[in-house]
Design goal:
This protein is of the alpha+beta class and about 200 residues long. About 25% of the residues lie in helices and about 25% in strands.
Length: about 200
């Protein structure tokens, strides 16, 4: 199943337009921009990694990633969890469509670590306190190879919303084009947004 990640059309956030090399194996010439995804290909499946410093303490970020109402502000689907504990079931209905993904909580240690399956993917959030009441968020998505660029573009937008960034209406397309060019040599052809999005 090809799961849409993030807004799959050109309707959502920012992130710098400068192309930091989004693969960690190609050896970027400077430090990578943490708003950009980095790609790891050494495991069973590709892993996208993002890092953000958010202007809220870990407890507030934990609520943003677990509270059903707060998730609506940035996550690309509804999130309905039986409980945030290992083994609990989650459903992810996509508003305006007949598509619903399912998942299972793999790890939940408030307010530090949350991991769960999202369809075929595995999402992981790691929260670390930073000075001045901030939180360092490391987010990873273990994804099928053919949708890595689509997912990277979508998650960059979603995490921009979580960080309170201003949204550029056409941001998704430019992110997707950049990630496609960077990822195709390692992963092969990349699929665009699902039909109808």
């Amino acid at each position: 199943m090809n799961t849409p990640t993030g807004p799959t059309g050109p309707t959502e956030p920012t992130g710098p337009k400068g192309p930091a090399d989004p693969t960690d194996s190609a050896g970027p010439t400077g430090p990578p921009d943490p708003a950009e995804a980095t790609l790891s290909t050494g495991g069973a499946r590709p892993v996208l990694r993002f890092e953000r410093v958010l202007a809220r303490p870990p407890e507030a970020v934990w609520r943003a990633i677990t509270d059903r109402e707060e998730l609506k502000a940035w996550f690309p689907s509804e999130v309905i969890a039986d409980a945030w504990e290992p083994g609990a079931k989650i459903s992810f209905p996509f508003p305006g469509t007949d598509m619903t993904l399912t998942g299972t909580v793999l790890e939940a240690e408030a307010p530090h670590t949350l991991a769960y399956t999202w369809g075929e993917e595995t999402l992981r959030f790691t929260l670390t306190p930073e000075p001045d009441g901030r939180t360092r968020l490391v987010f990873t998505d273990e994804t099928p190879p053919g949708i890595a660029a689509r997912n990277a573009a979508g998650w960059q937008i979603c995490l921009g919303h979580l960080a309170g960034e201003t949204v550029a209406a056409d941001a998704w397309k430019s992110h997707f084009d950049r990630y496609t060019a960077a990822f195709e040599p390692a992963l092969g052809p990349q699929q665009g947004p699902p039909a109808g999005s």
